[in-house]
Amino acid sequence: MVEASRDAEQSTRPGHRWGMVIDLEHCTGCGYCTNACQATNNLPDDIHWNVITTEQTRNEREYYLPRPCLHCDNPPCTDVCPVGATYKRDDGLVVMDYDKCIGCRYCQVACPYGARSFNWKTPEPGSYSPDWGDPEVEQRQRGVVEKCSFCIQRIDAGLEAGLTPGEDPEATPACCNACPASARFFGDLNDPRSRVSLLLQDRPYLLLRDDLGTASRVYYLLPEGGI
Questions:
Q1: Contact criterion met (CB below 8 Å) for 60 and 54
Q2: Rounded distance, CA 103 to CA 142, Å?
Q3: 2-221: which CATH topology?
Q4: Residues 145, 141, 147: CA angle, nearest 5 degrees
Q5: pLDDT given at position 129
Q6: pLDDT (average), residues 57-73
Q7: Does position 133 have pLDDT exceeding 70, yes or no?
Q8: Which of 6, 55, 135, 184 is surrounded by the most beta carbons within 10 Å?
Q9: Averaged pLDDT of the chain
Q10: Is 227 helix (H, G, I), strand (E, B) or coil?
Q11: Which of 88, 98, 173 is CA-nearest to residue 134?
């Protein structure tokens, strides 16, 4: 399921390159990240952008594995979309244009992480967002595929206001803000002084299915004793 990596990759690309770090040693599986995602991104109860599974180490020690969209540098989902409804921005975020989506679900099949969901019915307000949550988040309709955006609306608005994603809560993904165990971090991988860059320098980490060459940008810090 997972392949381990030891060294933080170096990027020479200009501009921002957003990434997330999740500390598997500290994640308690409480679900606060999922609840915050549901509320902030107007998700109905039957669709989840952030899923938490229970895994076991080689020593049969349980740990929790949160899985948002991994915003891959080489995303297979964008390659198969016939209408360009999913694409990668200059800052590396893999995003959706719901007005273009034709519901073919090719992207959903191509994603090796199961990070995309299809709207089989007209979405209704979920229990965590009875008033449709954040008005800046586009409403998805029946017949389209949707996924985690790293709370793109917060990142873009924060940058415009002069804030720093990963440091200022208003510009940071809701899941990171909500984590009571301080197990989720966000920031600019191109900034060697960012929290995410420093964490990847200090701790061994893994990338999910690194063998596929997707170059995902959600990094998992290994729990004590490894996995």
A1: no
A2: 9
A3: Alpha-Beta Plaits (3.30.70)
A4: 30
A5: 58
A6: 95
A7: no
A8: 184
A9: 90
A10: coil
A11: 173
